[in-house]
Every structure is written in C-alpha cells, then in structure tokens.
C-alpha cells in the first residue's frame, strides 16, 4: 500500500495524518488508549488479566452473531461481552468451581459460538480477519462514534465508583467486612473490561486485545503506585505507543494491530531495563 516509503526511515512522523483514514486511525488510537488506561489499571492491580483475555475471546461469539443476524458485529459484541463478564463474575462468586476453569470454559465456548454463527451466516465474511487481528486503518466513523460513547460510559462509571473499585482491587475481603458490595462491584468492573474489549476489537482484534489492556498499565505500575497516576501515565503511554506502532505499520506496510502490540512489548522490555538500571 505504501511501498514507496518502505525504504525510508525519514518519512515525517506526522505527514501521514494528511490522509483521512489515518486521521480516523489516530482518533481510534486515542479513544482506545483512554479506555485501556483507565480499565487496564484495575485489571493489572487486581490481577485479572486472564479474565480479560477470556472476555475478549468470548466476544468473538458476538461478532459471529452479528454476521448471522445481519447487524454491525461490534454492536452485537457489546451484549455478548457483557453477558460473558457477568457470567464470569457470578461463577467466581457463587459457584464452587475454580476461576481458571470458568475462564477456560467461557473462553473456548465463546470462540466456538462465533465460528458456528459465522458458518451459518449466508455469504462470505470479508472483514473477519480484521476482527481477529485488528485493522485500525479501516475504522469507520460509526465505530469511532461508538468507541467515544463507550469511553464516556467507562469514564463516568469509574468517576462514580473509583473508591469502591480501589477497595476491591487491593483487599476484597476487607471490603466485604466494611460493607462494600464487593460482588456487585466486581461484576461491574468486569463489565467495564467487556466494554473496553469492544472498544479494542477493531484496533488490535480479539487475539491481541489483552496486550493493550495490560501492557501500558504494567509499564506505568513500575514507576508509580498511585492509581490515578498509573491511569494517567497509562493513557499517555497508550497514545504514544499506539501512534508509534501505527506509524511504523504505515511506513513498512505491516499489519497495524500486530505492529502496535510489538511496539508495546518492546516498550515493556525497555521499562524493565530502566527500572532496574536507572
């Protein structure tokens, strides 16, 4: 697509924003970073990264359902992801089954349902690959609007329940003792994770969601212990690293979602080095 730039490292980093699809991609990167910076902080602090992975993979069932009934797959993924989040929360709190077992069951069942729904849908799913591995360069205006609305919902919920989320993230047992409705708040937190997953799907895809949701917060957590600072730093890092990955994918004609994740991974390795030796 951009092979005339492939041999040049000097391609101006902001010149590519003159293209309309790149402007949409940059806006998507910002919206994604906001959601991941806020929710990802709780995910990393509470150590529920694997649960986030289960929700993201189960969301594929919603994408398949969208193809089957003929609606936008992202829209269909919202209730499906929320249902998965609530199911994991209830199983974890009320059913005598280990959390990793519940995660494995919902993870695999969600993906399987997605495959079945797509196989039953008429015709061919031309953009299915983008939902699996992301395609930030093809994010339409409707998806940007939906991402913005979901970001507002996530932000509003966190502002309303920040102290409660903080309590259950660090000491859920003590929260129960002092009267905090920890079960309901835990399920609500998982629902925020589900909404974040929906925001992320179009950018990095179902397979790579967990990287954006965890790596910026994991990097930030190495340099500060205050939740608010981790959130702010995660958002800033998310924007910078996602933009860098987007630029590199444009210059070298690489898969955008995978390139963004590679940049995130390298940034994490660099942060470990800086933390240890500086």
Structure commentary:
This protein has 278 residues and is mainly alpha-helical. The chain has a single domain (20-277), classed as ABC transporter involved in vitamin B12 uptake, BtuC, CATH 1.10.3470. 79% of the residues lie in helices and 0% in strands. It contains ten helices and no strands. It starts with 19 loop residues before the first helix and ends with a helix. Mean pLDDT is 84; it is low at 1-10.
Keywords:
278 residues; mainly alpha; ABC transporter involved in vitamin B12 uptake, BtuC; 10 helices; 79% helix; disordered N terminus
CATH class: Mainly Alpha
Rg over alpha carbons: 19 Å
CATH topology descriptor: ABC transporter involved in vitamin B12 uptake, BtuC
Strand content: under 5%
Could you give the count of β-strands?
Answer: 0
Helical coverage, percent range: over 70%
Distance between the termini: 41 Å
List the helices and strands and how they pair.
Layout: H1 20-45, H2 49-69, H3 73-94, H4 99-120, H5 128-133, H6 141-170, H7 172-177, H8 182-221, H9 227-252, H10 256-277
Short description:
With 278 residues, the chain is mainly alpha-helical. It has helices at 20-45, 49-69, 73-94, 99-120, 128-133, 141-170, 172-177, 182-221, 227-252, 256-277.
């Amino acid at each position: 697509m951009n092979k005339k730039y492939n041999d040049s490292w000097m391609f101006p980093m902001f010149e590519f924003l003159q293209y309309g699809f790149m402007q949409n991609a940059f806006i998507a990167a910002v919206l994604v970073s906001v959601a991941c910076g806020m929710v990802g902080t709780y995910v990393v602090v509470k150590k529920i990264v694997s649960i986030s992975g289960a929700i993201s993979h189960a969301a594929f069932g919603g994408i398949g359902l969208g193809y089957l009934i003929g609606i936008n797959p992202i829209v269909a993924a919202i209730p499906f992801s929320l249902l998965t989040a609530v199911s994991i929360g209830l199983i974890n709190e009320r059913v005598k089954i280990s959390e990793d077992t519940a995660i494995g069951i919902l993870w695999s069942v969600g993906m399987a349902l997605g495959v079945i729904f797509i196989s039953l849908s008429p015709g061919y799913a031309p953009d299915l690959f983008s939902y699996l591995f992301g395609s930030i360069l093809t994010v339409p205006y409707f998806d940007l609007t939906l991402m913005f609305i979901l970001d507002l919902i996530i932000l509003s919920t966190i502002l309303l329940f920040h102290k409660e989320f903080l309590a259950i993230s660090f000491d859920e047992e003590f929260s129960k003792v002092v009267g905090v409705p920890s079960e309901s708040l835990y399920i609500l937190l998982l629902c925020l994770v589900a909404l974040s997953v929906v925001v992320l799907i179009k950018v990095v895809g179902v397979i790579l969601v967990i990287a954006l949701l965890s790596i910026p917060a994991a990097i930030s957590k190495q340099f500060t212990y205050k939740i608010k600072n981790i959130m702010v730093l995660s958002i800033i890092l998310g924007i910078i690293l996602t933009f860098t990955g987007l630029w590199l994918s444009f210059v070298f004609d690489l898969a955008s979602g995978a390139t963004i994740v590679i940049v995130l991974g390298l940034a994490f390795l660099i942060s470990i080095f800086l933390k240890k030796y500086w």
